[in-house]
Amino acid sequence: MLLEGTKRTGAMSRRARREKRNISSKGQVTIPRVFIDELGFEGEVEFIKRGNELVLRPVRAEMDFSQEILNDLVAQGLSGQELLAEFAAIKNNIRPAAEQMLEDAKSFAKRRKKTGDKETEEIFGVLD
Q1: Which of 3, 70, 102, 122 could cross-link to 17 by cystine, CB 3.0-4.6 Å?
Q2: Which DSSP letter does residue 18 get?
Q3: CATH 2.10.260 region(s) of the chain?
Q4: Angle at Cα 62 formed by Cα 61 and Cα 64, nearest 5°?
Q5: What pLDDT, in 10s, does the model give residues 20-78?
Q6: How many angstroms separate the Cα of 21 from the Cα of each of 24, 27, 37, 111?
Q7: Which residues, at least 6 apart from 82, have a Cβ–Cβ distance to it below 8 Å?
Q8: Under 8 Å between Cβ of 72 and 17
Q9: Which residues of 74-104 are buried (b: 16+ CB within 10 A; e: fewer)?
Q10: C-alpha radius of gyration, the chain, whole number
Q11: Which CATH class is domain 15-60?
């Protein structure tokens, strides 16, 4: 298991802490307590395959922008059914917009992959 962190020293650098664990006959691995505490693991773990690496990271609760959206719509003078309809439309567009931003970032990183830009690789990892 690899714990990656970054600190700024002019250029970005990596520090890694490694611990080995056995895989049980059921395919289970125990995450060391120090990693759980430092990274904030709680209920769920996300698995990401990057090339020949498996990255584990804590699943974060989705951000909910409902209050900000409502405040903005009310400030625009919307109310009643018009408010509800506009709120639903905006709320439904948040996830697709965020997913598009991630795809755009991944596409940008792939284009920069051959530039020798180590910071891009540190941010996005090995791209397929």
Answers
A1: 3
A2: E
A3: 15-60
A4: 120
A5: 999 999 999 999 999 899 888 888 898 988 889 888 888 877 778 889 999 999 999 99
A6: 9, 12, 17, 36
A7: none
A8: no
A9: eeeebeeeeeeebbeebeeeeeeeeeeeeee
A10: 20
A11: mainly beta
